[in-house]
Structures are given as structure tokens and as C-alpha cells.
Amino acid sequence: WTKVNGAENYKIYGAKNNGKVKLLKAVSGTTRSWTQKKLKKGTTYKYYVAAFDSYGRITKSAVQIGRASCR
Questions:
Q1: Are 37 and 70 spatial neighbours (Cβ–Cβ below 8 Å)?
Q2: Which of 18, 21, 25, 54 has its CA 20 to 30 A from that of 65?
Q3: What is the DSSP letter of 32?
């Protein structure tokens, strides 16, 4: 994902097979990528990222950053 000005950290969310979106990882504001390991065969994954400032306020709403199908 691209840098968001004022972001102190990012929260990465994900969903499996169009299920409930859950927080997967919080990373520092300097991070621009993240890799999920141990994907399950036959599962579709969607990923979203949101940027937060130093007070924990959202600076940019969550946007979808990826979709993957594990075959």
C-alpha cells in the first residue's frame, strides 16, 4: 500500500470466504507490506488496510489492498 501522511500505524484486516472481517495485524507507520502465512487450500482471502494517527484516530478509512485464492 502507499504511504498515508500523518499515519503512525496501520491496521490490516482480513476476511475468509466473504466471512466476517477481523483485525489481523497492527504495523508501524513505516511498513508498506505484510505477508500472511499458512493459507488454506480452497479459501478466498480479502485484505484491507486502515491508517491511524498517534492518538489512535483513523486518518484514512480501510481500503481493500488485496484478494487471493489459495488453490
A1: no
A2: 54
A3: -
Helix, strand, or coil here: 66? strand
Residues 6+ apart with CB under 8 A from 36: 14, 24, 45, 47
pLDDT tens, position by position, 6-61:
999 999 999 999 899 999 999 999 999 999 998 999 999 999 999 999 999 888 87
Task: Give CA–CA dist 30/38, Å, rounded.
Answer: 25
Report in angstroms the alpha-carbon separations of 13 from 23, 67.
4, 12
Query: First-to-last CA distance in the chain?
Result: 25
Predicted confidence band of residue 67 (pLDDT cuts 50, 70, 90): confident
